[in-house]
Amino acid sequence: MLEDLTAKFDRALKKITGQGRLTESNISDTLREIRRILLDADVNYKVSKKFIDDVKEKALGEEVLASITPGQLITKIIYDELTALMGGQRTELTLNASGLTILLMVGLQGSGKTTFSAKLAGYLNERKRKVLLTASDIYRPAAIEQLKLLGQQINTPVFSIDDCKDAVKIAKDSVDYAKANGLDTVIIDTAGRLHVDEELMNEVSRIKQTVNPTETLFVVDSMTGQDAVNSAKAFHDSIDFDGVVLTKLDGDSRGGCALSIKAVVEVPIKFVSMGEKLESIEIFHPDRLASRILGKGDIISLVEKAQTQFDESEAEDLEKKILSNKFDFEDFLKQIRMIKKMGSLKSLMGMIPGIGNAVKDAEIDDKELVRVEAIIQSMTPAERKNPKILNGNRRKRIARGSGNPIQNVNRLVKQFNDMQKMMKMFKGKGGKKMMKNFGRKKF
User: Fold this and answer.
1) Packing angle of the helix pair 198-211, 167-180 (nearest 10 deg)
2) Are 332 and 416 in contact (CB under 8 A)?
3) Rounded to an integer, what distance in angstroms lies between the CA atom of residue 382 and that of residue 401?
4) Residue 151 is inside which H or E element, if any?
5) What are residue 140's phi and psi, to 5 degrees?
6) Which residue of 33, 288, 343, 389 is 20 to 30 Å from 10, comparing CA positions?
7) Domain containing 25: what range?
């Protein structure tokens, strides 16, 4: 995610890191390079110019303290300005505590509205909302069926009217249905449209006037860069939406849309969507993305992702097993499944400070977790509980059952044995205290 931008910022800031003090000359050289980086990233020209002017003004007015280097100071100033550029702080989605919340999704064709509608429904389901998805895209073939299929995956009802070609009626009737059936949130998926298509723009305006949504969200493909920003401005001038959703951010290496859209449209980014999994939806935090752009990682989001999969009683049970050296393949399988739910391995590693740049060109195969899972599932319950009984014949059977070569099975067993040896470190007198202190560690 934004890996090209991160690498270029890193190179530009290294040039000033070795300087003894900040001067107008070395600041200008660095900012000239950063301005070029922003323009190459497809950041709006006016946004780039103002960003550079603001950074320069603050850098020249700052006194370099003995405890920090010029590189650290300019990095901090750029971090603050990047955060401000993207909105400063997170902006929450408006959800009515009582009565009905109506969320209207609008955007260009192919921006990912239907998939995001389902992701948002799943996100709100976890927060105890009673959600109804509305299929108001009457133009795209199979759009209604796609939403129904996604609704089944997250156990969320989908409202549609067979053979109805009136998107406004479908939206209105879905609101009436939600009220009559005790639901508190309606997410209306509309057809993708071009801002130059007057008829379709009028249709979505009529939907908005009819249902009076709590919020209207503009869903945009972040990989389209400056085109996305221009479309957002045109949509906002016509429809006046309340928030932006950036989809496909995991595939955006440049970052022009993420850095420009808030400044140009003056509407906050509320969510980002990364990956195809229905769990891959995140509240947008400007400060965290700024940190990632500058190669500083995003450990807070990583911890939050882990906490969504965290079960306190299971964690206590796991701790007891580690301390008593009884951690087995069954426990290992549970941990793998938890990691798989958190997202791709590469995106998770990118959140760890200092790791993002190191793995940007690395081939990190998420299928490796699937292969490991298949090997463990091919073991009998007795073999999972007691790996010591995995002799040659058992390993051959597991290899055949999981569709893996015997070498993969041997490698996994060896890695597991090595891990168990390491866990014996916790078995000693100070083991429990060591684990407790590790769990309380602040990042």
Assistant:
1) 20
2) yes
3) 16
4) helix 143-153
5) -75, 125
6) 343
7) 3-85
Q: Per this entry, what is the length of the chain?
A: 443
Query: Do residue 278 and residue 320 come from a single domain?
Result: no
Q: Cα(229)–Cα(240) distance, rounded to whole angstroms? A: 14
Is residue 193 within 8 Å of 200, Cβ to Cβ?
A: yes
Query: What local confidence, expressed as pLDDT, does residue 224 receive?
Result: 80
Per residue in 367-398, pLDDT (tens digit) is 777 888 899 999 999 999 888 899 999 999 99
Q: How many domains does the chain have?
A: 3
- Chain centre to alpha carbon of residue 158: 25
Question: Which of 85, 119, 142 is the C-terminal boundary of a domain?
Answer: 85
Q: What percent of the chain has pLDDT over 70?
A: 77
Q: Which amino acid is at 420?
A: Q
The pLDDT of residue 218 is: 93
Amino acid at 130: K
H or E element at residue 58: helix 45-61
Residue 10 burial class via C-beta count within 10 angstroms: exposed 0-12, middle 13-18, buried 19 and up: middle
Model confidence pTM above 0.85: no
pLDDT at 52: 92
Residues of the chain with pLDDT under 50: 298-299, 355, 358-359, 429-443
User: Which residue is listed with tokens 């190191």?
Assistant: 358
Helices marked H in 294-405 = 299-308, 312-323, 329-342, 345-349, 356-359, 367-377, 381-385, 392-402
What is the number of other CB atoms lying within 10 angstroms of the CB of residue 111?
24
| Burial of 25 (C-beta count, 10 Å sphere; 0-12/13-18/19+) | exposed
The encoded tokens of residue 295 equal 């190669």
Residue 113 shares a structural domain with residue 225? yes
Q: Give burial (CB, 10 Å; 0-12/13-18/19+) of 229.
A: buried
119, 278 Cβ separation under 8 angstroms: yes
pLDDT confidence of residue 10: 82
Same domain, 409 and 355: yes
Identify the CATH number of the domain in which residue 389 sits.
Answer: 1.10.260.30
Q: Which structure tokens are listed for 55?
A: 């950074």
Q: What is the pLDDT of residue 244?
A: 93
Residues 6+ apart with CB under 8 A from 286: 82, 83, 84, 85, 86, 87, 88, 89, 90, 269
- Report if residue 95 sits inside a domain: no
- Looking at the fold, whether 32 and 144 belong to one and the same domain comes out as no
Instruction: Please list, in sequence order, all residues whose beta carbon lies within 8 angstroms of the beta carbon of residue 207, skipping any fewer than 6 positions away.
Output: 104, 136, 167, 168, 171, 188, 190
Q: Tell me, rounded to whole angstroms, the distance of Cα 372 from its chain centroid.
A: 25
